[in-house]
Amino acid sequence: MKLTKKREKFCKEYVKLDNASDAYRRSYNASKMSNKTINECASKLLANPKIAARVSELQRIAAEVLRRNSG
Length: 71
Known about the structure:
The chain is mainly α and about 70 residues long. Helices cover about 80% and strands about 0% of the residues. The protein contains four helices and no strands. The protein has helices at about 5-15, 20-25, 35-45, 50-70. Helix 1 (about 5-15) packs across helix 4 and helix 2 crosses helix 3 (about 35-45). It is elongated, with a radius of gyration of 13 Å. It starts with a helix and ends with a helix. The mean pLDDT is about 95.
């Protein structure tokens, strides 16, 4: 599954920050957007099946790395 560069960055930032709005701010030009609009856009992205699948994949990889490094 191929995502745009911005969507891929959003997924990575979301996994790192665990905050969709902050991930959106770091991935898109949101400087002139209201917090409400940012929240709505971030929520829509997370509801996208391709993005949800990529986030799950990245979370699984991160958990695996943590598991390997702590043992």
